[in-house]
Amino acid sequence: MSAKTAEIQANLIPVYIMGKRYDVPESLTIMKAMEYAGFKFIRGCGCRGGICGACGTVYRLPGDYHIRVGLACQTVVQPEMYLTQIPFYPANRAVFTWDDLKGEAEEVFKVYPELFRCLACNACSKVCPMDIQVMDYVAAIKRGDLDKAAEISFDCIQCGLCATRCMAEMSQYHIAQMVRRIRGKFIAVPSEHCDKQVEAIISGYYDKFLQEVMGLGTLDPMQQDQVTDDIKKLKDLYNQRQMEPGTSENEWTPDSDHALLK
Ligand code: FES
């Protein structure tokens, strides 16, 4: 079946993007449906894989008072949904001098005193597209258990939707990011492997490889053969990369003598 035939056969459903009706194929994600409708993303779109948090979206369904949320790149359109994206939310992000920190909970309290305005309504957890128990990590921070708060918030993708619903006007995701950084510096067991990798990067171990990859970016349409060749080489490099196994009993570290680096 040709792409054209597939398009004709696709079942179109009405959705309302920022109040205007568009008919889009029913199987598309919100992001793809918006592109189908003619929108071009210059903000509010990053990884397209549910990881970067750039595409927070709010929507309502007909006959339902609930405001719903999702990631535009992951949520499939539904008939008659009213939607808009919230690619950026102006939330408070504290300014502090990292080198002055000692890794104590009081330092978080000082720059984010609004933590103690939490009413425990749990709207933040309910809105989280990553199913993080946001209210629980806020409670952990308040009792000084930064390790626990970092663990609970680990999957946060910084979409900011929690802050949009917070009655205490907190920016939970920025607070949790500070806490995870404190944990990384002061609480977590140092990672020997990470230190070695940083040393390798600083020493220039990867420079030759990176220069080669960066040189494969020909975009000149007049050099179509070169563009095709570069794309093929980049795809080959991508396919040959080292990947951490999905499941493994043993601790895994990348092979620093991998063929790609030779
Ligand atoms: S585009 Fe990255 S999470 Fe949707």
Automatic annotation (TrEMBL):
<feature type="compositionally biased region" description="Polar residues">
    <location>
        <begin position="242"/>
        <end position="253"/>
    </location>
</feature>
<dbReference type="Pfam" id="PF13187">
    <property type="entry name" value="Fer4_9"/>
</dbReference>
<feature type="domain" description="2Fe-2S ferredoxin-type">
    <location>
        <begin position="11"/>
        <end position="89"/>
    </location>
</feature>
<feature type="domain" description="4Fe-4S ferredoxin-type">
    <location>
        <begin position="107"/>
        <end position="138"/>
    </location>
</feature>
<dbReference type="GO" id="GO:0046872">
    <property type="term" value="F:metal ion binding"/>
</dbReference>
<dbReference type="InterPro" id="IPR036010">
    <property type="entry name" value="2Fe-2S_ferredoxin-like_sf"/>
</dbReference>
<dbReference type="InterPro" id="IPR006058">
    <property type="entry name" value="2Fe2S_fd_BS"/>
</dbReference>
<feature type="region of interest" description="Disordered">
    <location>
        <begin position="242"/>
        <end position="262"/>
    </location>
</feature>
<dbReference type="InterPro" id="IPR001041">
    <property type="entry name" value="2Fe-2S_ferredoxin-type"/>
</dbReference>
<dbReference type="InterPro" id="IPR017900">
    <property type="entry name" value="4Fe4S_Fe_S_CS"/>
</dbReference>
<keyword id="KW-0479">Metal-binding</keyword>
<keyword id="KW-0411">Iron-sulfur</keyword>
<dbReference type="GO" id="GO:0051537">
    <property type="term" value="F:2 iron, 2 sulfur cluster binding"/>
</dbReference>
<dbReference type="InterPro" id="IPR017896">
    <property type="entry name" value="4Fe4S_Fe-S-bd"/>
</dbReference>
<protein>
    <submittedName>
        <fullName>4Fe-4S ferredoxin</fullName>
    </submittedName>
</protein>
<keyword id="KW-0408">Iron</keyword>
